[in-house]
Design goal:
alpha/beta; 2 domains; 3-stranded parallel beta sheet; two-stranded antiparallel ribbon; 7 helices; about 50% helix; globular
Length: about 150
């Protein structure tokens, strides 16, 4: 359902082995299946295998898409790290927040992105790395990458 609606931008999180029965048996097949829906503007996580990044760049070239790899400018990165420390974000939330901030910066501006980050309240996702009691966590991650996060 990721390509049902017309979109201005795609954001690709780390691509790994999930939904192999639908997407393919190799990392390249899975990546190709996911990346072929690339919109005119695309953002991809910098935490990809090199062959996935290379494939993304090739597809972007063929589609004439503006593909950017997630990396924050130094000023935004500093504020991102302050936010992550303040709220003790688990790895997967840091990763997703970094992508969201970069997408915001691409679609708006560095200034508006920084303003949004400074106003952002604590992220609270029930069921994702949620501590139920000391040393007991619940996580609804549905694939091996989510379990590692």
């Amino acid at each position: 359902a990721t390509s049902v609606f017309e979109r201005r931008m795609n954001i690709f999180t780390r691509i790994g082995f999930d939904h192999v029965q639908i997407l393919g048996n190799s990392l390249e097949d899975i990546a190709r299946t996911k990346l072929k829906i690339m919109a005119p503007i695309a953002l991809i996580s910098d935490e990809q295998e090199q062959n996935v990044l290379n494939l993304a760049k090739k597809i972007a070239f063929l589609k004439k898409a503006d593909l950017q790899v997630s990396s924050l400018n130094p000023f935004l990165k500093e504020n991102f790290e302050i936010y992550c420390k303040k709220f003790v974000l688990p790895y997967f939330l840091k990763h997703n927040l970094k992508l969201a901030l970069k997408a915001c910066e691409i679609l708006t501006s560095q200034e508006k992105t920084l303003e949004a980050l400074k106003k952002l309240q604590e992220l609270n996702l029930q069921g994702r790395c949620q501590e139920i009691s000391p040393n007991f966590f619940v996580d609804v991650g549905h694939n091996p990458m989510a379990a590692k996060a």
